[in-house]
Amino acid sequence: MGRGVRPMAGGGLRGQSVASGGQGAGRLGAGRRGVRRSAKGPKSGGHLAAGSSGADWRRWLWGGMAVGAVFALFILAARSAESRSKRIYLYGTASLAQEAAYCLAAMQRVGEITHGLGPRKLEYYLREQSAFWITRLEGEPMAALLAQARGALGTNSHARGTNEQAHLHLAVQECGLRSLSLGARLRSMAASGGL
Length: 195
Known about the structure:
Layout: H1 14-85, H2 96-114, H3 120-136, H4 142-157, H5 164-181, H6 187-192
């Protein structure tokens, strides 16, 4: 027997038991390290799962915001179309053509009163306005619309408590403002700042 190996009472060798004990301790240590590694594994996997769930939450949030923005734009477009369809025309007229005919009738009526001898700026304004409203009636039954507009103008200007000249003055001004909103370029108003 070599040095450090002593017989035991049961016939075994002390050195072998020590060696085997050392191997067992090594296996135990390896087992503990494996347990520690396995314990770390789920923890790191948990971080990955949390990160993926956070990314999913952000995608759902941005997707919901995008859908909400599209829906809001659709509502705004619908309301804009509704407001255009409910546009209020001057003096109870029901369309752009009727409004144009009414304004043309008002300009012509003022010209009949002044006989073309009114203030130069006024006469120039009446000519510009008449030309603008005639262009707005292109492609429309102008004669029928103008006859209807003259009847409505006469009714409005001769209503009880209404002065014809005061009504015509107001109509000329309001039609002038409406023509500007429709894109008219009136030199008579630009030069004098109005009537």
